[in-house]
Design a protein that fits this description.
This protein is mostly beta strands and about 300 residues long. It is built from no helices and 28 strands.
């Protein structure tokens, strides 16, 4: 791998360095998410990786309502926030603290899943302004600008959001109807699908000044690809081609696409292949192959 970056892959058997193929943390553990210096292990606990604020720390979530942690938001200096199955939200201090107002969100009775089970929190993020955005699947994007005291619905819940991400002056989301962008801190959203061969999107990331979006023809992941476009324009999306296969087998799923401010990016696939880019997704090269049981990818 010639890309000058560390690409970490969370798997069912630990955290793997894509460049060397070696397990670098949590050997034998099922690592479902990586955020900041925190790893989600077995859907039940957060384990701090190297770093002065987290190294060796454990946040036990085995007794949380909902029974399974699904995602993490971790900002430097703050206690992580986690979402769970059955759509609950917790602050993970020394003792977990339920964000009770989220359980009383006005639209909660409308949340659903196509298979009839309870909706889950799928992703959560905090904007630089302090606004918290929570993606419920299926329940839209909920927003709080008072540190979780109250919550308001934003995007139409039937847009079927799969991931939300907050930036300095923009929020973005991957939806079943394409790419969603908000220029007012997540209050209102516009849907864009110009240039896409299909609209079903599972993952979104930002590399430098470019947004990256995974797209396929539906939940089964047929004709899956990754697209790019400038972050601050409404230009049509263009397909990422150089260094990538014509199509991916299966969706590039939520948290399988990562980007960084320096323009680097990484993506993982169902086949366990990991690709990296140093030029905002213009060109890619394969960094690893046949990584078993991929759960997530992150840049360190």
């Amino acid at each position: 791998m010639t890309a000058a970056m560390d690409v970490l892959v969370g798997t069912a058997a630990g955290v793997i360095d894509a460049g060397t193929g070696r397990v670098v943390a949590l050997d034998g553990e099922d690592v479902g998410a990586l955020a900041g210096r925190w790893a989600l292990v077995d859907g039940r606990r957060l384990v701090g990786l190297d770093g002065p604020a987290t190294d060796g720390q454990v946040r036990d979530g085995s007794a949380l309502e909902g029974g399974r942690i699904t995602c993490i938001d971790a900002r430097p200096g703050d206690e992580p926030i986690v979402g769970t199955a059955e759509a609950h939200l917790y602050r993970m201090g020394a003792e977990p603290s339920l964000v009770e107002a989220f359980d009383r969100a006005e639209t909660r009775s409308q949340w659903y899943t196509p298979w009839g089970g309870p909706a889950d929190v799928r992703s959560v993020c905090t904007a630089p302004s302090g606004a918290i955005l929570v993606n419920v699947h299926v329940g839209g994007i909920l927003r709080s600008d008072d540190d979780g005291v109250s919550w308001g619905a934003t995007i139409d819940l039937d847009h079927d959001v799969h991931q939300v991400l907050a930036l300095d002056d923009l929020a973005v989301a991957a939806c079943a109807y394409g790419f969603a962008a908000s220029h007012d801190d997540g209050l209102t959203w516009d849907i864009h699908d110009e240039g896409l061969h299909a609209t079903y999107s599972r993952a979104v990331a930002v590399a430098g000044d470019t947004v990256l979006l995974s797209v396929s023809s539906g939940p089964q992941g047929h004709r899956a690809a990754v697209y790019r476009r400038p972050l601050h324009t409404d230009d049509p999306f263009e397909r990422c081609r150089t260094g990538l296969p014509d199509w991916f087998d299966g969706n590039v799923d939520t948290f399988w696409l990562a980007g960084a401010a320096d323009g680097s990016a990484a993506l993982a696939t169902w086949a366990g292949n990991v690709y990296v880019s140093t030029d905002e997704g213009t060109t890619w090269e394969q960094a690893a192959s046949a990584v078993p049981s991929v759960r997530c990818v992150a840049l360190a």
